[in-house]
Known about the structure:
Elements: E1 2-6, H1 17-29, E2 36-41, E3 54-57, H2 70-77, H3 83-90, H4 118-135, E4 140-144, H5 149-159, E5 163-167, H6 171-175, H7 181-193, E6 196-199, H8 202-211, E7 219-221, E8 243-248, H9 257-270, E9 274-279, H10 285-294, E10 301-305, H11 310-318, E11 321-324, H12 334-340, E12 345-348, E13 361-363, H13 368-380, H14 382-396, H15 401-415
Parallel strand pairs: 1-2, 1-4, 2-3, 4-5, 5-6, 6-7, 8-9, 8-11, 9-10, 11-12, 12-13
Amino acid sequence: MKALMFGWEFPPHILGGLGTASYGLTKGMSLQPDMNITFVIPKPHGDEDQSFLKIVGACNVPVNWRENSWEYVNNRIGRMMHPDEYFWLRNGIKYNFSRIHTNDLGCIDFSGRYPDNLIEEIANYEAVASVLAHQMDFDIIHSHDWLTYPAGVFAKQISGKPLVIHVHATDFDRSRGQVNPTVYGIEKRGMDMADHIMTVSELTRRIVIEKYHQNPAKVTTVHNAVEPLPDADSFTKTPRRDKVVTFLGRITMQKGPEYFVEAAYRVLQKTSGVRFVMAGSGDMMQAMIDLTARRGIADKFHFTGFLKGRQVHEMLGESDVYIMPSVSEPFGISPLEAMQVGTPSIISKQSGCAEILDHAIKTDYWDIDAMADAIYAIVKYPAMYSSLRNLGREEVDNIKWYDAGLKVRSIYESVI
Length: 416
């Protein structure tokens, strides 16, 4: 079976959990012997793992016709795409996209990030999808998250092939209910046009059904998993006296960073032998720095900035407790990553991963007293730490992307 997937990021260059989930799912699906995946992203860097799929950079797909020699194309993008593929894709230009600014190859210069003109980049991604839909051979279209829904819809309209969309989050999660009408419109149209909708949790499924008015029979939950970590035992703690409690994620209102700071304040009123780490970046970072200062705990707080790759597991491995106090978390892979390296996790009940984890402590995101009590218990009672460490690690090692991939495959077959 051939799947044309539209995504927005892919490891090792990721800005959040979307890229991590896309990698894990596609790798798990690739273990099926007849599964062939082409994964489109706006701007690849050339160091992505293509051993189990083919990556196509939207920035290398011509949407406006340009006359260029084979040698010129090879010199410009040969490291990323074979010139023969460029010329073959050029034959798929069926529409006039002269309104879109393109470079000397007739390609669009995508940022590969989440720029201020994100809506414009999403619209430009549709143009690329039209070329791919005309030229490529595929059985099904799979769009990851709202950024790629318009591309998936356009590819469906051109090819007549079924479209499944993967809801990793909604704007209700990202905005605490202050929904952007433009984003909502893109999400709603993608859901309306999809032949089937996959959500990463029952929590998200309910939002899709209730807030986007979708038929429940059209929406299926496929829980995320975690990529195996063969060298999990190599992530150990540096000998030290103080315990370390870590928040790792985007420092935005969706992730509840202020609840982490307030819980830390309460813990430090009971004991001084704990340090707190806020790893990540986001629009609330300065506000959190200011909050730690107002609470008088800045000397016990560390802000690392954005971490990626091995840095993530090194930070989690150094931690005695990991906490995810998200206000609305569609799934949340980071607690699973923490548990892989033996770090006990505290997660909000308002998270999708709470649906499948038994050996993590669950509290309401707003209940900072319960969070503080849980942190205190883990760092002060070795038996509790050891139990959560051992049972959690055993549990998470059995949550596999291959199983998630089988569920996705069954959905494919139901709509083809």
